[in-house]
Amino acid sequence: MSSGPEAVPAAASSNVFSQSVRDSLVVAKRNLIRMTRIPEMVIFGLIQPIMFVVLFSYVFGGSMEIGGSNSPAAYRNFLMAGIFAQTVTFATAGAGAGIADDMHKGLIDRFRSLPMARGAVLTGRTLADLVQTALTLLVLAVVALLVGWRVGSDAGTNAGKVLAAFGLLLLTGYAFTWIGALIGLSVRTPEAATSGGLIWLFPVTFISNAFVDSSHMTPWLRHIAEWNPFSATVQACRTLFGNPGASPSDAWPMAHPVWASLIYSVLIIAIFRTLAVRKYRSATA
Amino acid sequence: MPGAIYAEGLVKTFGDVKALDGVDLDVPEGTVLGLLGPNGAGKTTTVRCLTTLLRPDSGTAVVAGIDVLKHPDAVRRSVGLSGQFAAVDEYLTGRENLQMVGQLYQMRAKAAKQRAVELLEQFNLTDAADRPTKTYSGGMRRRLDLAAALVVRPPVMFMDEPTTGLDPRNRQQLWDVIKQLVSGGTTLLLTTQYLEEADHLAHDICVVDHGRVIARGTSDQLKARTGGERVEVVVHEREHITAAAEVLRGFGKGDTTVEEHTRKLTVPVTGGPKLLAEVIRELDSRGIEMDDIGLRRPTLDDVFLSLTGHAAEEKPEENGTVANPKARKRTKETAQ
After folding, report:
1. I need a labelling partner for A218 at 20 to 30 A (CA). Which of A73, A189, B27, B274 fits?
2. Which of B4, B1, B6, B27 is nearest to B204 (CA)?
C-alpha cells in the first residue's frame, strides 16, 4: 500500500526568524511567571552570593596580598569582580535543573509535539535566566557597596565602563546557561542536573583569578587559570571597574581581557547552543 | 487511500531492545483505534513515532495525509497529543497553560486567549482557571492536558494512556469527554492497558505485544476469536462442586474449569439464555444451592490471555484501578 498523494499544509506565514523570536518570548514569559510563583528559588539564588561576599571579604580579607597590599579593603575591591562572575555562572545549574525537570514531567514532549521554533524552548529558558541573573547582580552590587566595595577612583573609570562590565557579566552568564541547558538535556533526573550542573563550576571558578592572584599559582595551574574563559571576564571587570587586579601577565586573555571575554562568550554560545538544540530535537524523556 | 493515521513496518530499537518490531496500522478517518497491550509492549513508542517525537529506524508513517518523516512540522500543526504524564506546567494556571500552548501553535495572543476561555468552559475548569495547576486534582490535570491537545481542533488526536492512574469516577468523566470529541469527527489513536477502556471507546483494537501487532479487529471479532459464551456458576457449598461439575458437563461444549477456593465453575456453551435457564432448572432440581450464576461473554482480558499466553501484565482489581501503574511505567520507559 503506497502512502498516496500527500497534503502538506502551507508553512506558517511569517518567516522562521520572527517565529523563533516570538516563540522564545512565549517560553521566557512562562519561565518568568514560574519564578514569581516560586519566590523561594529566587531568594535562595540571592542568599548564596551574598554569603560569599560577606564570608570572603571578612574571612579572607586581610590575609590576602593584592598588589602588594594586605589591607582588607584592597582584597574586597579585588574580590567583587570574582564574586560577580561566579554568581552569573552559577545560573547554569538552575537552567540545567529546570530543563531536566521539564523533560521529566513531560513538558518537553508537549513542546516538541507543537509546531514551534526548534530552539525556542531553550532560548526562552536562557532568556528568563538572564533576567534572574540581572536581578541577582543588582542586589549583589548593593550588598558589595554596603561592605565597602568601590569602583576605582583613578582616571579612566566612568559609568559607561561600569555598565560595560555588568554587560560582560550578563553575557558570560548567558553563555554559561547554554552549557547548563546541554547538561539538563543530557541527564535523566533533575537531581542529577543540579549536582552535575554545579560540580564542574567549582574547578572552573576556583582555578582562576577570581579569589586569589593567579600569579602565585604553580606555573601549569597558572596557565590554566590565565586561559580560563572565566578569568577573562573577571579580569575584564576589574579593568573596567578600575579595581586592583592580578599581577601583570603575558597571557593574551589577561592582556586583552575585554576582547577575550567577548570572544569566549560568543564561542561558548555558538558551540553549546548548537549542541543543546540538536540534543533537544532528539530528546527523549 | 490510507486512513487518517497510517503506519507500515515501523521499527525502533533502543540499544538491544527492539521496542517496535514492524508495526502496521491503518485508522480510517473519524474512527478510534485502541492500541492495547501490557507495559513495554511498544504502545508509547508507537505514539512517539507517529507524533514526530521519535524517529523510527525504518518504516513509513502518514498522519492526516502528511508524511511524518518528511514533513514533521506540518504533522505537528495537524495533531494533538495528550500524554500519560499530564504535561502541563504546574506553576502556571490552567488559563496560562492553554494560552501558552495556543501561542506556540502560532495563534495570535488574542485568539489564544479566547480559545483558552472556550476550552476551560468545555472541560469544566472555569472555576479553577486562575489557580496554578499544582492545586488541581489528577482528573482536572488530565482534562487540562486534553484541552491543551485540542487547542487548534486538530483532525487527528493521540492519547497515550489517558486514564492511567485515575479513579473510576474521573475515568468515566474523561471517557465522556473523549466520546464527545470523537462524535465531532476527530480521528483518535488511544493507547491503554485497560481492556475495559478499549472495549468502551475504540471502534477497532490492535493488540500489541513485544513491539508487534498480534491481533486486530473489533472488540466483538476479537472476542469471537477467543471463543463464545460460557456459563459461570458459584455454588454455595464446597461439597456440591462435584455434582455441579457433572451437570455442567452435560450442557457444555468443552472442558469445565473449576476454581476450588472460590467454588466457581466455568464451561463454554452455545444456546444463550435458553440454555442458561435449563442449567438453572437442572441444578435446582438436584438441590444444588447457587450463590451466583450467569452467562458470560469473554472479556478482552480473556482475549489477551489467549493471544499472548499471559494476562495483561497488571491485572486490574475489581474497580479497574491498578496500584500506581504510572510509577512503574516510568521506570520501564526510562530503562529503555
Report:
1. A73
2. B27
